[in-house]
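Section 3.1: Structural characterization of target chains.
Under the original work plan, the team committed to producing a structural model for every single-chain target entering the pipeline before any wet-lab resources were allocated. The record below documents one such target. The sequence was received from the expression subgroup and is listed exactly as submitted; it comprises 380 residues.
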Amino acid sequence: MWLSASRKHQTKYLNSSLKINLVKKPNLLQKIHRPYSLPKLPPDRYYQELPDPELAGDGALVIIDDSDDFDSYVYRLSNVLYQGKTKFQNVLIGDTYNWGRILVLDGAIQSAEDDESLYHEMLVQPAMLAHPKPENVLIVGGGEGATLREVLVHGSVKSATMVDIDREVVELCRKHLVSWHRGAFDDSRVRLVYQDGRKFIEKNHERYDVVIIDIVDMLDNGPAQSLYTKQFYQMLRKRLSPRGIVVIQGLEFSFLDDKEHAALFRTLRTVFSEVHSYRTDIPSFLSSWGFLMASDWFQPHKWKPEQIDRVIKQRLGTEWLDHITGDFLKSTFSLCKETLFMLGLSGPILEDGVEFVLPPDIEDNESPTMKFPILPRKKT
């Protein structure tokens, strides 16, 4: 059946059997005999075999993500915990074989159990580690609670305000995505506000050290786009403390998919003097994903890996982060030549009341053949 969606995403569920096997059901796990011994793991890790595809059956239950205009992607499900519609969006929470539990909003995967720590570390920790002492933090969006989790691990944080428009989604996540939030919603430093993020910024006059924008990832001229415009960022800048930092989930971002991220980059540069893109690959998103840091002071090229490692150890210890190290984080700000060219082009920005229209693709004008080597050989 088709689940109607409020935007161009739609989700299709195919179910030819009512018997749905759970991923971790013992009789589904492969029994593999290896001609070698496995290395000993630290106490906080353990081995688990993948489910045996033959024992799992023919895959009667799948979700089809057709958010792309041309390609569709199929995810095989073992269980559906919730499927329905809130006041604002369609919601699916289910278990997959390859990505663990997933949260799907309006047909697009928002978060997957097996790699959410990478996404949320990359969204939250660069700004939190860059700020000298983040005490008051604002999160716009972040319904799973994992963004909140990454904020609250910092002992300097005195107040964390999370503003999300969809109370029902937050409650569903509180119930079904416990490994995401880890009880963060119940921390005494947390204030939950169920309100449109833009209206909150318009009426709230508190100052924040770090602001994290973790909302839906479509620039489709819908309601959420008001949280991506020049006028919104101008208001947001007035809510920052003197060394405040804004970080934004920056949509798909690579030299093949740069237009929307580049529009965000240009928009932020009309408001902030320091705007920097960084990226990493999020496996469950099937894409390279971008992030943006904006402020009037922070310059990541001056950030040395050993400095980052030292701050991590001082603030978070050595065990909390699954992915970020000084070298890794520093590398995510390094972009390839083609990506830098695309970011350097002029183009549209996002503004209130102005339709956002993507620019056309840019193709290379190249001869089908060439002469090798590319440079003439030096005379010896």
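The chain has two domains: 2-112, 116-344.
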